[in-house]
Amino acid sequence: IAHTQVAAEYAALLRDVADAVHGIGDECPLVANGGLAPGGTRRCECGGEGWEGGLTSQDFIAAMIAADPDAFARLDGLATHSYPAEGEGWGFFVPYDRAGPGLHYYERELAAIGRDLPVLVTETGWSIETGASREDVASWTVLAYQNDWLADDRIVGVMPFMLRDVSWDRFAWTQPDGAPYPVYDAVRALRCSLV
Question: Are 83 and 100 in contact (CB under 8 A)?
């Protein structure tokens, strides 16, 4: 299926769900899109050889708007998967000092939809699979909170990927037994210092 067909179907779904939720007449339920992947690949081989970028969420958003110009007019917030990356849709999980384009990717998505909305970062974070230590992840995550996420009033929530998964631990904030990794303690300390 071409991405334009899927984008048109998603635009219609988003419209219909937003209309139904807002039609309840209660101001409490708010509507945001499902966060889109920042980018995909057309081709990728192990070790990084042969990588070829694919569509970005900006391309998908443009296709949604082409199908329904009001696709994003009904949203109360933008959900985004602004992962740390040195590029737009590529180069993920680099050290903090190179991660700005990915951490601020939501700005490109807001520009693509043409609205300035509250932002929910519904997936983000660093992985240890790229050679980062648990201490690196903790340090970089605190820097992202201090310098990026808390510094932008449009960001109303950050939901890092992920708290815990016993079968897939490389992004986790807690160990399989529930004991915290350094990132959990570091972000908790930051939060406590701000209260």
Answer: no
Peptide bond preceding 162 in cis form (omega within 30 of 0): yes
Enclosing H/E stretch for 135: helix 134-144
DSSP state of 187: H
- What are the pLDDT digits (tens) for 50-76? 666 778 999 999 999 999 999 999 999
Two tokens, residue 29 = 């339920």
Q: Which of 77, 76, 96 is nearest to 85 (CA)?
A: 96
Please enumerate in sequence order all residues whose Cβ is within 8 A of that of 130, keeping only pairs 6 or more positions apart, or say none.
Answer: 92, 93, 94
Q: Which residues are within 8 A (CB) of 57 and not within 5 positions of it... i.e. 6 or more apart?
A: 36, 37, 38, 39, 80, 81, 89, 105, 109, 112
Q: Per-residue DSSP letters for 75-115? A: -SBEEE----BSSSSSSBT--GGG-HHHHTHHHHHHHHHT-
Q: Which residues contact 178 (CB under 8 A, 6 or more apart)?
A: 164
Q: Are 64 and 10 in contact (CB under 8 A)?
A: yes
Per-residue buried b or exposed e for 79-102, using 16+ beta carbons within 10 Å of the residue's own CB: bbbbbbbbbbbbbbbbbbeebbbb
> Mean pLDDT score of the chain, rounded to an integer?
92
